[in-house]
Design goal:
single chain; mainly beta; Immunoglobulin-like; 7 strands
Amino acid sequence: MYMIPYSNRSSSSLMDLFDEFERSVFGENGRRTPAFSTDIRDEGDHYLLEAELPGFQKEDIDLDVKDGFLTISATHQESSETRQNNYLCKERRSGSFSRSFNLDGIQEEGITASYSNGVLELVLPKRQEVLPQSRKIAIQ
């Protein structure tokens, strides 16, 4: 799935023009590159999801589980003082970013998260298969 950035940018930088062109040609769902990168590894009894969120504080990140999906949201707020500076080049973005992941086969209540050095780590425990149990029936 692709993350769709939402922002209230008012600048008309060259990068914004390219973003607008990409959206007009491919649409929001056709974006080729998500706004933040993730790696997901199979660790046997669980999956490890690592999301790169450099520059965010832990308080800027929200994790929500609803209807079988995990949504990672992060918000950068640009101060009014920063907006008034005369940048020659501004590639770092402000705004809100969100990305969702399907939780099929995941034990939702066992998900844990940690955040350190710009990397969000989520442990996603696999749902255990329920094997049919057999039992002996005594004859009366």
